[in-house]
Structure formats: structure tokens, C-alpha cells
């Protein structure tokens, strides 16, 4: 970190001129490209070297070439000029109402791999805005919508009066380790049989959670923060849990239980703009990209 009294000896323009001399292979072509006189280019590079006290260029025949020191300094200078360009672009974006940060809240039961193509493309158009991706569970998703703490929400629950764009369905399977006593019982198992064993549940992310979903009658319950922790406990034979197929697909020696009257939990996912017309342009861009990709994916899965 620079000290408060630090004063740069060089200018950004000098570094840009050095870059141009190297990129265009000499002072003459660089001067023509930048619409400057060759003498001013020579003077700028000479001043840069004098200020730094190091040799950046050497003349070989009629061509200026970088010294070993010059190669290092040029590489770092490119990072500097890119950073300044991005900084100025960010200022322009903010002036135009472009958000410096947006939040995407995603229900944990949604397979994140579906987001990757969109996020890869969005990164190219985000103009430096930061993206926060937040896991939500159960009423935590509803809370993010009602309290507008996120710009975009992917949820399986729609609060009253809120509309959402339908996405692909989700599924939750009831699973235990093959070594677990429940796996040895005749199927389907009854709710009474299930209630005698430890259930692993995922913590509701709401500040005031409402336990209104899922099978929660087990006397013994352990609560974890995510599916990965839950899967580890299930694989160890410690308890049973409702988990989505994208989590269990790579797990070894798991058994899917059949519960009398409810062997699986499933439903639709929705894409929601909690702030509606107050949504900023960056969040709106990501939303439109998600709609285009994920609704097409949903339609494709229905056709097949």
C-alpha cells in the first residue's frame, strides 16, 4: 500500500506511449497510431526511463526492443492501464444507473450447474459489477422476495401476489446409507418407522423460519447448513435425509427409500424479480439472460 505522501514520478500517458511503441514495433508507427509527433513519443519514453532510473528500451538496428527490466515493467503497466480503463468505465456505468453490486438468491434445491453457461456469458457484459450468489432454503427464499434483499431469486415458493417465470422442476429423494437399518426394512417404510431414526435437515435461511415443508416428525434431528454436510452424515450411516439427485448422483452406497404415501418430493422452480420495475439495468440484464437460457432448458426437457 502506498504511503500518504507518495507522489508518482510517472504518468499513465507515458506508460501508454511505451506500450504503443512496443505494440507497433517502433516510434514512427506508434506516433502515427496515436496521432502524435515522433519527437514527443521519444521524449515521453526518455522521461519515463529517467524518472524511474532504469532502462526500458534499447535500440537494435532501427528497432526499439525491450530490456529484461522493460519486459517486467511493461507487463505490470498493462495491468495498470486496464485497471484505470475499467475504473473509468465503472464510473460511467454508475452515472448511468448501472449497479455496482447485484445479488442472486438461489434455492439450494436448484442445480447450480444450470447457471454456469449464463454466468459465463454475463461476466462478459457485467461492466465490473460484483455478483453475490446466496444460498437460500425454504422460507429464506420467500423472505428474500418479500423483503427485497435480493435482486433476483430462484425459488420453489411464490409468496401471495408474486409472479415468477417457471423454470425446470426439482426433486428431493429420501436416502440413507446402504448400511443404515432403514435400508434393511421392507419398502415402503411407514412414517412411524421413519420417526424412530435420526433425520438430517437443512437449516432454513430465513431470519424467522417457518417449518411448513418437508417431513419433520423425527424425534431426533440434526441441522446442517448445506447439502454437502448432509450428504457426509448420510454416507456415514448416521441418519436419513431428503436430498436432490444432483447431490446424490456421485455418492456411493446410498439407498433411496420409499415412504408410504410420499416417496418423493417435487415441484416447480420460479425465477422472480422482487423489486419489479425498480430492478436496475445490470440485474435486469442477468434476469433476461437467465430467462432465455433456463426457460429454453425447461421447454427442452418437457419435449424430451
TrEMBL record:
GO MF annotation terms: DNA-binding transcription factor activity; transcription cis-regulatory region binding
Organism, scientific name: Pseudidiomarina halophila
The organism's taxonomic lineage, starting at the top: Bacteria, Pseudomonadati, Pseudomonadota, Gammaproteobacteria, Alteromonadales
HTH lysR-type domain: residues covered: 10-67
Keyword NAD assigned: no
Listed PROSITE patterns: HTH_LYSR
Family assignment from sequence similarity: Belongs to the LysR transcriptional regulatory family.
Keyword terms of this UniProt record: DNA-binding, Transcription, Transcription regulation
UniProt-listed InterPro entries: LysR_HTH_N, LysR_subst-bd, WH-like_DNA-bd_sf, WH_DNA-bd_sf
Entry protein name: LysR family transcriptional regulator
